[in-house]
Amino acid sequence: MELYLDTAEVTEVREVAEWGVLDGVTTNPTLVAKSGRPFETVIREICEIVRGPVSAEVTATDVEGMIREGRHLAGLNEHVVVKLPTTVEGLKACKALSAEGIKVNMTLIFSANQALLAAKAGAAYVSPFLGRIDDISWEGMEVVREIAEIFALHDLPTKVLAASIRHPRHVTEAALAGADVATMPYKVFKQLLVHPLTDIGLKRFLDDWEKAKQQA
Ligand code: E4P
C-alpha cells in the first residue's frame, strides 16, 4: 500500500520524505491557499523532493478550462497527477487528459458509482473522502471497501486513494478495505509511528544496559 502526505507544506514533505517511506503527495486548493505560497512553486518543489505522484488540482469548472489547466499542470513536472472534481465536466476532461497520457486523480468522490464512472473515464486514481462521509454520519470506510471490491471484480486498473483521513485507525482500516493508497495530514503520518509501549520498551532496554555496564 502506498502512503501519501496530504499537504502543501514543503517542510512537512521534506521531513517525512527523509524517513524513506513516502510514496507521494496530494494537495488541494484549500491546502495551497493555507500555505500562502504560489501554487506552481509549491508543486514543483514537492515534486523534486518526493519524486513520486503529486496531485495538483485544477480550479476551472468547465471542460475546456480543466483540460487547459490540466495540460499546464502536467507540464510542470513529470510527477504531477492532475486532480479533477467528479462532475460531468470533470469526467469529460478526465477522458480527454487520460487519452493524452496524463494521469488523473478524480477527487471529491463520495459513492462507489462516482468511482465507477471515474474509472470508466480513464482515471489513474479515485479519491473517496472517507472522513467527510463519516462527518455526515455515514460509513466512509464502507465506500472505500465497495470501490476496492468493484475494481478488483471487474479488473479495473484505477487505484483507490483513500482520502480525508482523520486518524491512524483510518489508515489501518483503509489498508484492510483494499485501498491502494492512503493520503493523510502530516499529524496523522507522524501518529502512525507512535506507540507508548515502544517508548517505554526502549527506555527500559537502555536503562537495563546502563545498569549492566555499571555492574561490570
Ligand atoms: C485529498 O486529496 C484531499 O486533499 C483531502 O484528503 C481532503 O481532506 P479533508 O476532508 O480533511 O479536507
From TrEMBL:
Annotated localization: Cytoplasm
The entry's keywords: Cytoplasm, Pentose shunt, Schiff base, Transferase
Catalytic reactions on record: D-sedoheptulose 7-phosphate + D-glyceraldehyde 3-phosphate = D-erythrose 4-phosphate + beta-D-fructose 6-phosphate
PROSITE patterns: TRANSALDOLASE_1, TRANSALDOLASE_2
Group of enzyme by EC: transferase
Active site as annotated: 83 (schiff-base intermediate with substrate)
Pathway: Carbohydrate degradation; pentose phosphate pathway; D-glyceraldehyde 3-phosphate and beta-D-fructose 6-phosphate from D-ribose 5-phosphate and D-xylulose 5-phosphate (non-oxidative stage): step 2/3
Gene Ontology molecular function: any one: transaldolase activity
Pfam families recorded: TAL_FSA
Function: Transaldolase is important for the balance of metabolites in the pentose-phosphate pathway.
Protein name according to UniProt: Probable transaldolase
Organism of derivation: Marinithermus hydrothermalis (strain DSM 14884 / JCM 11576 / T1)
Higher taxonomy: Bacteria, Thermotogati, Deinococcota, Deinococci, Thermales
The encoding gene: tal
